[in-house]
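#structure-requests
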Amino acid sequence: MSVEQPAAPAVAAARGAGRRALLVTVVAVLMLVPWPLPALVVGVLAFVLAVRAFVAAGRAGSRRRVAIVAMSVSPVVVLLAGLLSLSQLVFGDQIARYEECMRGANTHTSRDQCQQELRRDIGRTFGLRIA
C-alpha cells in the first residue's frame, strides 16, 4: 500500500504563502506604534493571507505552523492598532497641546504644570474634575 506524496510545487507554494503571511504580520507589528491606522489595514491583510496559507497548506499536505503563527499574531495586531487609532482620535488634541507645552518647558516646575494640564484636559474629555 503506497501513500500518495503531495506534489512538490504545491508544498513549496503553500510554504511560501505561509512565509508571506508571516512577513506581512511582522510588517504590521513594526507599523503599530508610529502608524496605527495603516497597521490596522495591514493586520487585516495579514490575517487574510494567513487563513489562505493555512488552507493551502492543508490542501498540499504541508505543515501549517507558520500560517498558524501568523493567524495568531495578526488579530492581536488588529486589536492593538484599533485601540491605538481610537486613542489618537479621542486624545489627539490633548496630546498636541501637551507636546506644545513641553517644548516651551525649561524647568521641572513648568514640566509638572504641563503634565497637570494634560491630566485636566483628559479629565474634561470624560467629564471628570481633576484638580
